[in-house]
Amino acid sequence: MTxxxxxxxxxxxxxxxxxxxxxxxxxxxxxxxxxxxxxxxxVVRHGSVVxxxxxxxxxxxxxxxxxxxxxxxxxxxxPPLAAAAAEPSGRRVTLWPYGSPVDPxxxxxxxxxEAATLLARLHRAPVPSGTPPMRGPVKAARAIARLRAAxxxxxxxxxxxxxxxxxxxxxxxxxxxxxxxxxxxxLHLGQLVRHPAPDGPWVLIDVxxxxxxxxxxxxxRPAAWYACGLLPPxxxxxxxxxxxxxxxxxxxxxxxxxxxxxxxxxALTVQTAALAIAKSVAAxxxxxxxxxxxxxxxxxxxxxxxxxxxGRAS
Length: 314
Hints:
The protein has two domains: about 5-100, Phosphorylase Kinase, domain 1 (2-Layer Sandwich); about 105-300, Aminoglycoside phosphotransferase (APH), C-terminal lobe (Aminoglycoside 3'-phosphotransferase, Chain: A, domain 2), CATH 3.90.1200. It is about 40% helix and about 15% strand. By secondary structure, the chain is an alpha+beta fold. The model is unreliable at about 305-314 (pLDDT under 50). A five-stranded antiparallel sheet has the order 1-2-3-5-4, with helices on both faces. A three-stranded antiparallel sheet has the order 6-8-9, covered by helices on one side. The relative contact order is 0.14. It has nine helices and ten strands.
């Protein structure tokens, strides 16, 4: 199935949910809006409903269990409108209520405290029987595979060395130690929406990586951004303080949080750098300033001098 065909299928699924019994037409004459179009998920909105095609090869049993977890934690996770169904493309499709996302043009309004509080509540929630493992390390390993498949790049070596220095569990080569906590698995500000739109409370979205794991992984991306100089210290402190005040178990209630966050933060830094280089090679362009910052962080982690990878991808 082509991308255009998949978008059309998703739009039809969302329209039927908004207008049951209306046939092929659309009484409100509102068009479909493509919200995301990536290998790991295509998302189309029609009115108050969003249809998502999950990645090719998604385990239907694991996805069903993740959807069940979301349905059981309203107010923390956005609950689905319908269980997953298989489309002719073979991809699993789910339906969700639309929520208003974080505004990328208004960084001062970023809901760091709300994100941290939601994470703490998720991490303290009981883990339902049969919940699959959190997929954070799986995604990191896939980013490294994508880097290796992209071809040569002057910044790849320190990233691969930083990857090799991580423990086996962070590279998806061994089970996560003491994995007893319900985790989101891919936390960033794009994973929050207000529901009901436009002014409802914030909730977490995207259950594709949800599962049992190390809760430090969910704090690792903002921790890594802070360590790389991409997140201002005051915003990191707001996030960390709110998480602790909400009783989050990933870090000690006071004192230095970094011993608990170090491995996961390094893993997310490597993952981000690997994807940045792969995209640079594909687009035949140099790394931008933000991408260079995460590559430089990998160089520091691997004992190399910074400012690698400035050349154009070969």
